[in-house]
Design a protein that fits this description.
The protein is mostly helical and 85 residues long. 62% of the residues lie in helices and 12% in strands.
């Protein structure tokens, strides 16, 4: 399989399946996706316990987005000077 090439300024990186996976897993987008997924799974567990049955991922996802996503995302944003304190 031929490697794709990524160009970063003067450097070129050959993207093989292994380093493409590492690149993805180390990306901020992927880490945010994983953190959000964990929150949804926690919500699914809590709401399933409350309902006395498995509510399923889709219902948990929809419910979490409507009730919690905005506040969760806002809590993950760091204000411009917070890291320097």
């Amino acid at each position: 399989m031929a490697a794709s090439l990524l160009h970063f300024g003067h450097a070129t990186l050959a993207m093989t399946p292994d380093n493409a996976t590492d690149f993805l897993k180390n990306s901020t987008l992927y880490r945010e996706f994983q953190a959000e997924r964990e929150e949804i799974l926690k919500h699914k567990w809590i709401e399933s316990e409350r309902a006395g049955r498995d509510i399923g991922f889709e219902q948990a996802l929809t419910d979490w987005i409507i009730k919690h996503r905005g506040k969760w995302r806002k809590s993950r944003q760091t204000p411009a000077g917070a890291a320097a304190e």
